[in-house]
Amino acid sequence: MKPQPSGDEQNQHSSKKSASRYLGQLAAGWMIFQTVLLSTPVVAQQQDPLTYRELLQKIQAGEVTKVEIDPAQGVAKVELENGDPSDTPLEVKLLDQYPELTQTIRAYNNENEENIVKFDVKPTADSSAVLGLAANLLLLLVLLAGLIAILRRSAASSGQALNFGKSRARFQMEAKTGIKFNDVAGIDEAKEELQEVVTFLKETERFTAIGARIPKGVLLIGPPGTGKTLLAKAVAGEAGVPFFSISGSEFVEMFVGVGASRVRDLFRKAKENAPCLIFIDEIDAVGRQRGAGIGGGNDEREQTLNQLLTEMDGFEGNTGVIVIAATNRPDVLDTALLRPGRFDRQVMVDLPSYNGRLGILQVHSQNKKLSSEVELEAIAKRTPGFSGADLANLLNEAAILTARRRKEAITPLEIDDAIDRITIGMTKNPLLDSKKKRIIAYHEVGHALLMTLLEHSDPLNKVTIIPRSGGIGGFAQQVFNEEMIDSGLYSRAWIVDRLTITLGGRAAEEEIFGHDEVTQGASNDIRYVADVAREMVTRYGMSDLGPIALENPDNEVFLGGGVERREYSEEVAMKIDQQVRAIAFRCYENARRLIRDRRVLVDHLVDVLLEKETLDGDEFRKIVAQYTDLPEKQKQLVLSKS
User: Fold this and answer.
1) How many helices (H) and strands (E) does the chain have?
2) pLDDT for 633
3) Is residue 68 within 8 Å of 120, Cβ to Cβ?
4) Phi, psi for residue 172 in degrees, rounded to 5
5) Under a CB-based contact definition with an 8 Å cutoff, are residues 530 and 506 in contact?
6) Which residue among 311, 444, 509, 510 is the active-site one?
7) Out of 40, 67, 507, 512, which residue is the most buried by the measure of CB atoms under 10 Å away?
8) How confident is the model at residue 593 (pLDDT cuts 50, 70, 90)?
9) Whether residue 242 has a cis bond before it, omega within 30° of 0
10) What is the SS3 assignment for 220?
11) Per-residue pLDDT for 481 more than 70?
């Protein structure tokens, strides 16, 4: 049976065929153009003033003084005796053969020796032959250039087919990384752990001499934007070794075996340049648990993972080659990757703390024009939970706003707007004075007032009724306790106050406008309260059911999870629902009571907010502290949050 050509061969054949057809059309068009160019143009002329017969008669009559013949064009240029010397000679069209003309001129000159007719033959230069030769040479050069281009394209496609299994890793020497540990801020703990890797790469013999085994791999684990890739470049820059970088998705192709071939080629190049560093970004794209995919595994991905496992710790050693991988999903990685001998070190790259954020801001503010009023310390305090990439984006957004407002330096106003734009959304046009605007004002004041009054609440940063993109009519923003966020330890009192604050907007709407005028603006707040209250009952043991963990959330769909397994009876499920409902209703009634008891203060705060549209935390707390009916204990509590 005749073998069928592959897809690449068919594409190459069709490309060659189309190129040949194109060259043929080009040659035919050039020949037509050459014919038109070199042919004698037909010029529309007026009727000849002198015919051939009249010319002979005028010569015999002695009215012609000069005849100049141009055989190339087949004309005779005639000068008459009575004509003006400044006029151009008359052109007489000649016949193919004109012996009568020469005979008549010769006979006239023999008879009239004093007044003879000057006769001359001056053919014009005929360049058609030269032009034809030049045109043919030019066509030959064009055809030759097209043929060379086709051959080069065929050679390139053949080379790509042969290099399909080669590694696509970017190779950088020491001078090209340009990044050291001093250029990385905010993750000092991770830098200290990676300093050990730098020592391994610099002084390999010192460890091997006493029998120590150099770690094969380092796994960087952390949220997106925390600087994992930057850390890997800094390790290569500090150690002064070659640096191979590749993404995990670049290994996997639709053809089985290509990824494994690229892994082999990558480690072969790395061994030739040892000691060196290999950085694999997003390793979870190729290192997920084998056989865990829905509907069957990916053979190509699993073969690539098997080859990676073999290269890192197989029959052949890879002395002097350290692999650094980065991921933000360590829970999906195959257990064979995480065992000793493969990724021996696992470095956590967490979100930066206050000092880390301050260092990152100092690095990224070096090329920014900041006014003297901008304090990086205040920005670092206001941005807990921001990653390094978020902080860089924050300063960049502030610089963009400054340029749009035609200011010479970044001011605190641009910093505040940039923070709100990143965390909440872009500012929209303020609402007109209407019922909707007043409802939003009461809603946000309800949140802000409870943030100020409750004992375990974090202080208010600002409250505004300027709408934002995404359907946000306004917001009340807190300054969260960074130590609590870093530790992840939240007390029951803090959680309860948090739920009460969340329901403050709905409580204000119902107290002011009545039950029938409550809007759906608190839908997200109610959803949040339900989720947190359920976790208090089923996971945290913060209810009357006691310290019992009743649910274990499992959201790893690709691991066969995604469904919470119920390990309790229907009776316990009913009690859980009752406890969740009791917590939510208790917080809601507390929020309504606090707002109901301070109705005059709430109305005054709404009037001020409608006038200014934005109140910062200090100004809001001063208004609350000046409220005459506020007990002295609550006044001290309010002032302590300033």
Assistant:
1) 24, 13
2) 64
3) yes
4) -130, 135
5) no
6) 444
7) 507
8) very high
9) no
10) strand
11) yes
> Bridge-partner residues for 217, per DSSP?
323
Q: Which of 629, 632, 567 is nearest to 601 (CA)?
A: 629
How deeply is 70 buried, as exposed, middle or buried, from its count of CB atoms within 10 A (0-12, 13-18, 19+)? middle
Separation CA 533–CA 539 (nearest Å): 10
Examine the residue annotation and report whether 455 is marked as an active-site residue of this protein.
Answer: no
Q: Exposed (0-12), middle (13-18) or buried (19+): which is 218, by Cβ within 10 Å?
A: buried
C-alpha 399/C-alpha 167 separation (Å) is 40
Distance between CA atoms of residues 431 and 465, nearest Å: 8
- Of 161, 200, 169, 165, the residue nearest 269 (C-alpha): 169
How far is Cα 414 from Cα 404, in angstroms, rounded to an integer? 11
CA dist 168 and 596 (Å) reads: 67
Pair 627, 601: CB distance under 8 Å: yes
List strands edge to edge, sheet with 75-80.
90-93, 75-80, 64-70, 118-121
Side-by-side strand order, sheet with 276-281:
170-172, 243-247, 276-281, 321-327, 217-221, 345-348
Which class for 226: exposed (0-12), middle (13-18), buried (19 or more C-beta within 10 A)? buried
CA–CA gap between residue 188 and residue 178 (Å, rounded): 19
**DSSP per-residue letters across 389-406:** HHHHHHHHHHHHHHHHTT
Nearest to 283 by CA among 238, 337, 236, 342: 337
What residue type is assigned to position 157 of the chain? S
**Residue 222 and residue 605: Cα distance in Å, rounded?**
43
pLDDT given for residue 316 in this prediction: 63
Residue with tokens 């040479």: 137
Q: How confident is the model over 226-254, as a mean pLDDT?
A: 77
